[in-house]
Amino acid sequence: MKYFTIRELTKSSTAVRKGINNTPNSIIVNSLTALIDNVLDPLREKWGAPIIVTSGYRCPALNRAVGGSSGSQHTKGEAADIRTLSDSREDNMKLLRCLLNSGIEFDQVIAENVDSQGRPDWIHISFTRARQNRKKRTTMKKIAGRTTYINGIKI
Ligand SMILES: [Zn+2]
């Protein structure tokens, strides 16, 4: 672990506000460490600038509180939502391209809440030690207000 910390991937203002104990157990800590060592740190190195984690581990209660899908890899410590420092869609798109061109192994990348040009609001990234990583690419788009998942990412 070089750039990211377990604390950074577990702290949550929603958990604090709602009195939810989001402390990870040792299995979750191991998964978060693998996510940092295999994905987040190498990506941070390639990107060359700070990357903001907006959500990492979510215990089941926190996952429900934020409306996460049940069985989300966030509840296993296998996923993080990230964005650039500027948080512009243009820069988030550049970070997404950097990730997908890097050869970094991942289980799933979701370009989240993309606009008409495919630029993401944020990026969901996961890594697992439980099985082979799928290198699955998914786009999430709001169509007529409905959250829709589409296979593939246009970069
Ligand atoms: Zn996510």
Question: How is this structure best described in words?
Answer:
By secondary structure, the protein is α+β, with helices and mostly antiparallel strands. A 6-stranded mixed β-sheet has the order 1-2-4-3-5-6. The protein has one domain: Muramoyl-pentapeptide Carboxypeptidase, domain 2, CATH 3.30.1380.10. It has helices at residues 13-18, 26-47, 60-65, 89-100, and strands spanning 51-55, 79-84, 108-112, 122-126, 136-143, 146-151. The structure holds zinc ion (ZN). Zinc ion binds next to β2.
Q: What's this entry about, in short?
A:
Helix content is 30%, strand content 23%. With 155 residues, the chain is an alpha+beta fold.
CATH class: Alpha Beta
Number of strands: 6
User: How much of the residues is beta strand, in percent?
Assistant: 15-25%
Q: What do we call the CATH topology?
A: Muramoyl-pentapeptide Carboxypeptidase, domain 2
**Spatial gap, N to C terminus:** 29 Å
Low-confidence stretches: none
**Biggest sheet: strands, sense, closure?**
6 strands, mixed
Instruction: Count every helix, treating DSSP H or I runs of 4 or more residues as helices.
Output: 4
Biggest sheet: strand arrangement: 1-2-4-3-5-6
Q: What's the SSE pattern?
A: HHEHEHEEEE
Structurally, the number of domains stands at 1
Radius of gyration: 15 Å
In helices, the fraction of residues equals 25-40%
* Architecture per CATH nomenclature, i.e. the level-2 architecture: 2-Layer Sandwich
State the secondary-structure class: alpha+beta
Bound molecule types: zinc ion
